[in-house]
Design a protein that fits this description.
38% helix, 3-stranded mixed beta sheet
Length: 191
């Protein structure tokens, strides 16, 4: 298992079938082992696009069934390898119109915000997410947004798909982790 953020349940209660699964669970949960690097100015946008998946665990398909009684989100590792082949990504023409609209409003692809992603899960989950500076720009981009894509505002206050708009920021595990890291560095400097 490799979590994108903090676990939603008590990590000590998880039963894992083997050492490899246990090791991958630890590496996702503890970002000090495999740190995820996100461009700080787009961290809120990444969190908004991921939503509850910011707390997801990446597991192999065989291990997913053993977690059926647990609560939370699971990303199946084998599906990440085929993420580019999933239908609904948009035609070449749709993607060109999307890129043109993003350039017009000074937005971009959210995968460009990912600096470090040891297992590739975050890039795969953000492959169909773009960002804009504000809600007005997001609504302009919505008109050319392919089905299955998201546009989020830079500050994470809105998530827009081809039909709907979700407003309001949710919980921020990536922001909390960045703040904890910053405070840790400051404390170490004071010693």
């Amino acid at each position: 298992l490799q979590g994108l953020g903090m676990p939603s349940g008590n990590i000590n209660r998880w039963l894992v079938p083997d050492l490899r699964t246990a090791a991958s669970l630890f590496s996702l949960y503890d970002q000090s082992v495999f740190p995820l690097g996100i461009e700080p100015s787009l961290r809120a946008a990444v969190e908004a696009a991921l939503g509850d998946l910011a707390r997801a665990y990446v597991v192999e398909r065989g291990g997913a069934t053993s977690l059926a009684g647990e609560r939370g989100h699971i990303v199946v590792r084998e599906r990440l390898a085929t993420a580019e082949k999933v239908a609904g990504g948009g035609t070449a023409g749709e993607l060109r119109r999307l890129d043109d609209a993003l350039a017009t409003v000074s937005g971009g692809r959210l995968t460009e915000a990912v600096r470090r992603d040891p297992n590739g899960a975050v890039r795969a989950l953000l492959a169909r997410a773009v960002w804009t500076p504000d809600l007005a720009a997001a609504l302009e981009v919505q008109a050319v947004l392919p089905v299955g894509w998201l546009v989020v505002t830079r500050d994470g206050s809105a998530v827009v798909d081809a039909f709907t708009v979700r407003v309001g920021r949710g919980d921020s595990p990536l922001e909390r982790r960045a703040e904890a890291d910053r405070l840790g560095r400051e404390a170490a400097a004071l010693e």
